[in-house]
Amino acid sequence: MSDTDGNTEYGRKSFKRSKSHFTDRITADARDGWPVEAGRYRLVVSRACPWASRAVISRRLLGLEDALSLAIADPIQDDRSWRFTLDPDGRDPVLGIRFLSEAYDAREADYPGGVSVPAIVDVPTGRLATNDFQQITLDLATEWTALHRDGAPDLYPARLRDEIDEVMEEVYEDVNNGVYRAGFATGQEEYETACDRLFRRLELLSARLADRRYLVGDTITEADIRLFTTLVRFDAVYHGHFKCNRWKLTEDEVLWAYVRDLYQTPGFGDTVDFDHIKRHYYQVHTGINPTRIVPLGPDLSGWLMPHRREELGGRPFGDGTPPGPVPEGERVPAAGRP
Ligand SMILES: N[C@@H](CCC(=O)N[C@@H](CS)C(=O)NCC(=O)O)C(=O)O
Fold first, then answer.
1. Are 126 and 257 found together in one domain?
2. Which of 12, 32, 72, 264 has the most CB atoms lying inside 10 A of its own CB?
3. How far apart are CA 255 and CA 257, in angstroms?
């Protein structure tokens, strides 16, 4: 992946995340030409990817599974990037393509940028609609409301947006992206700065969450989804592979209980595939793991232990209800679960 400054995700210069190139939005009023419409779009993800996993969780919590279908890419990209090698004949059964890049090419011929997930593809034309990972989940929460299930939670309540945005910004800079900055640092100082900021922020978050069940308000919001997707990967990949090893998540009583609580909440843990996560990070980033050996640990059994966070109060779904069972065909295989 490279951006216009020539920085590469795994490259020699300092790590800089590329901006999404396709920033059209799918909205109720179709202002960018993409109306919210049941059955029209396909959400392409890798279960390994934290940015894509946000969208998978939101889709489950909001009950959009029937309205927005899901394509799961192989966690190991090849030189043509994300591919549908998990599907029969190596083709996505709905889009009929072998590589996600085909949808990018259909949108913009000779697109020179990286091919990234999450991506939402327009099924009738096969064209990429958006890969704007920062906006996709906000739009699922606020623009796709006509298609939400009964009892769907409000993940981005209007009265709390300023606070949610502020928390998400800090979490993005220091935690979501901070782990990548540490992991792909090419100099000692760059690594130490990222690592310091990451753990300082985690300590602040731990203090914040000591006496409140969720980050903002007393219900699950977009802010929790975004923190969860990094925390759930922490001990499995960021602690070792990205050298974020001042302490393990399991060593912080508050954060470990917080992330376990979310993991055990329908819509969160049932989307997580630790097998995809570990194989992707350890096998794809050969610059930092040249042997491509995937570690056996950590032991996952702790994820199902009681967390006792309900004693703090809080109403996970507010006035709503938990999502129903995971649709047939979307269940995470046993290899990826505790
Ligand atoms: N900066 C990305 C955000 C999403 C992202 O970084 N996704 C990663 C996977 S976690 C990806 O698909 N990277 C492209 C690649 O690795 O080939 C974007 O351009 O939209």
1. no
2. 72
3. 5
Output the residue whose Cα is nearest ligand 1's atom 12.
116
Residue nearest to atom 17 of ligand 1 (CA): 81
**pLDDT of 41 over the 60 cut:** yes
What's the mean pLDDT in 192-208? 98
> What pLDDT is stored for residue 100 in this prediction?
98
CATH of residue 127: 3.40.30.10
The pLDDT value recorded for residue 6 is 32
Average pLDDT, the chain: 95
CA 244 to centroid of ligand 1, rounded, Å: 20
> Which one of the listed residues 41, 49, 258, 281 is annotated catalytic?
49
49 as an active site residue: the answer is: yes
Model pLDDT for residues 259-310, shown as the tens digit of each residue: 999 999 999 999 999 999 999 999 999 999 999 999 999 999 999 999 999 9
95 secondary structure, DSSP code = T
Question: 41, 104, 180, 263: which one is catalytic?
Answer: 180
Sort 7 into a burial class: Cβ within 10 Å, 0-12 / 13-18 / 19+: middle
49 C-alpha to center of ligand 1: Å? 8
Q: Tell me, what CATH number does 271's domain have?
A: 1.20.1050.10
Provide the pLDDT for residue 15.
Answer: 80
Of 118, 147, 176, the last residue of a domain is 147
State pLDDT tens for residues 78-115.
999 999 999 999 999 999 999 999 999 999 998 888 99
Element (H, E) at 194: helix 188-208
User: What burial class does residue 141 get, using C-beta atoms within 10 Å of its C-beta: 0-12 exposed, 13-18 middle, 19+ buried?
Assistant: buried
DSSP 331: P
Q: Per DSSP, what are the bridge partners of residue 99?
A: 83
Give the atom of ligand 1 at the shortest distance from the alpha carbon of 131.
20
Q: Do residues 69 and 129 both lie within one domain?
A: yes
Where residue 13 falls among pLDDT bands split at 50, 70, 90?
Answer: low
Within this chain, do residues 249 and 296 fall inside the same structural domain, yes or no? Answer: yes
Distance of alpha carbon 109 from alpha carbon 96, whole angstroms: 18
Number of domains in the chain: 2
Told to judge if 195 belongs to the known catalytic residues of this protein, a careful annotator would answer no
The two three-digit tokens of residue 290, written as one number: 């040249």
Last residue of a domain, one of 97, 121, 147: 147
Residues with CB under 6 A from ligand 1: 1, 17-18, 20, 49, 51, 77, 81, 114-117, 131, 133
